[in-house]
Amino acid sequence: MKLILTADVDKLGVAGDIVEVKNGYGRNFLLPRGLAIVATRGAQKQVEGIKRAQEARAVRDLEHAKELKEELAKLEGVEVPVRTSEKGKIFGSVKSEAIADAVKKAGGPTLDKRSIIVPKNLVKQTGSYTVDVKLHSDVEASVNFKVVSA
């Protein structure tokens, strides 16, 4: 079965790749989960759109990743507003998407929310925290941010 991947799949390929898989794997796993679409002529146009979107949010190369790391190191004033109780305990959790938005608002680079690594149970109340950002396979940066009451 010939399929076009719409998302990265371990040990198979990245979004936009055209792959040949066994019928059962494609029909029972990849297609129902939305990880792939059947390869047709019209789907080829979708592949181009997927690749364009992927290139827009991807870090271009190692040098670009190092530049982004320097920008993140210089960045100050990153504040993530959340709902809190009177004692400062937050309701819910701080998501990587909120951190990426706060970095952009503070004048930093645009980060992909999937590249921000937020350890489970890290943020429980207002205060200052640090998370890691995987910019490239060889480059990892850290972002300092402050959780404030909204």
UniProtKB/TrEMBL annotation:
GO molecular function, one term: rRNA binding
UniProt keyword Ribosomal protein present: yes
Domain Ribosomal protein L9 positions: 13-40
Keywords for this protein: Ribonucleoprotein, Ribosomal protein, RNA-binding, rRNA-binding
Keyword rRNA-binding: yes
Any Gene Ontology CC annotation: ribosome
Family annotation (PROSITE patterns): RIBOSOMAL_L9 (PS00651)
GO biological process: translation
Family recorded in the similarity comment: Belongs to the bacterial ribosomal protein bL9 family.
Function, as annotated: Binds to the 23S rRNA.
Protein name: Large ribosomal subunit protein bL9
Gene this chain is encoded by: rplI
